[in-house]
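Notes from hallway chat w/ T.B., transcribed later so I don't forget. T.B. wanted the structure written out for a chain they're using in a teaching module, and asked if we could keep both sequence and C-alpha cells in one place. Agreed to drop them here.
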Amino acid sequence: MNKVYIFTFGCANRYLDGEKYKNFFIQNNYEITNKIEEADYVLVNTCAFRKREEDIAIKRLIEFGKRKKKSAEIIVAGCLPAINKERMNKVFKGSHFAPKEISKIND
C-alpha cells in the first residue's frame, strides 16, 4: 500500500481541499502517514495569497525535498502554481495543479 504525506497551510479553502485530498487517497487505498520519510507521495497543499505564505510554501518545498525518501514524489497543489509558478519552478520541477485544476489529482 502506497503512503501519502499531506501538508496543508493557508486559508480555509486550502484546508477544505486538504480534507478532499485525504479522503481521495483513503478511498483509493493509500495510507495517510504523518512521517514524510515513510511517504511514497508528498502532497504540499499551498497558499500564496501574500508573500509571507508564498515564502512558507517555497521553504517547505525545499525542506521536504531534502527530507523525503529518494523514491518519493512531491506534488504541489493549491495557489502557488497559479500565483507564482515562475518562483516555484526555481526550487521545484515536479507535478503540480492549482485549485481550479483539482480534478488533476487523479493524474
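Follow-up for T.B.: The longest strand covers residues 3-8. Might be a good example for the class.
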